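Reading is simple: the token line describes the chain's fold. The lines below illustrate.

. . .
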Amino acid sequence: MLRSLCKSHLIAGRSMAVQTLSRNMAGQAPQMMEDYFKDKKIIVTGSCAGMGEKITQRLLDLGAFVYAVVEKEEGAAKALPGTKQIFCDVSNWEDTYKKMYDIGPVHGLVNNAGVAVIESFFDVTENGWDKTLNINARALVRISQAVAKNMIDAGIKGSIVNISSTISTRAIPDHTTYCASKGAVNQVTRTMAIELGPYGIRTNNVNPTVVLTRMGKIAWSDPKKSEPIMRRIPLGRFAETDDIANAVIFMLSDYSTMVNGTSLVVDGGFLAG
């Protein structure tokens, strides 16, 4: 009899706890994107063209202030309202850290700056290797060190989004250095997630397939080059810059507060087959 009473009491207690939790969850309407990004400060590297330009514009549309990292002042487009341009050669180890640290605390970072040196395996050059790894991987580490330090000191539970690629895990011809650099990005992201997670800082990748930026359209205009990849994409198209911006916005926002150390693949199913 005593065991039966205890069991009944336990079941009733669990039922009440579940009902309370359900009520609490039901009452928590998700915050609108516009509300989350309003007055937030975000750094976007490689912000002057392609994916970086689109990500920057979307953040501005959502009410964020963007520190737009641009390589050279000469020839750079005029700064948009709601942005501040930071001119920085991200391959310079010391200068990059100083300029990123001097920005001060921000709520998010998008490591988008990157290069692609197209060389087959036997044609890989020292310059092509060094340039690609320095900008795509090493600079990402240096920038993130400065930004994360500021976040921690300010007690900000921020989000860092690194732009990787589907060919970080599935290689294609003539991209030895690029594949290597993006593979490095994947591992750096995982390590950052482990080490920065205890401070409330999330680090994730967005891994696109071919993206139809202005340069992407030129680079993949040859059907002999593009069709083997296109045939592996069930949705039958390459990505647009908006597709990548959507994923980045999600990863930066509080809609992804439990997402850390992972890759959000934006490839139409390329890696599924």
The radius of gyration is 22 Å.
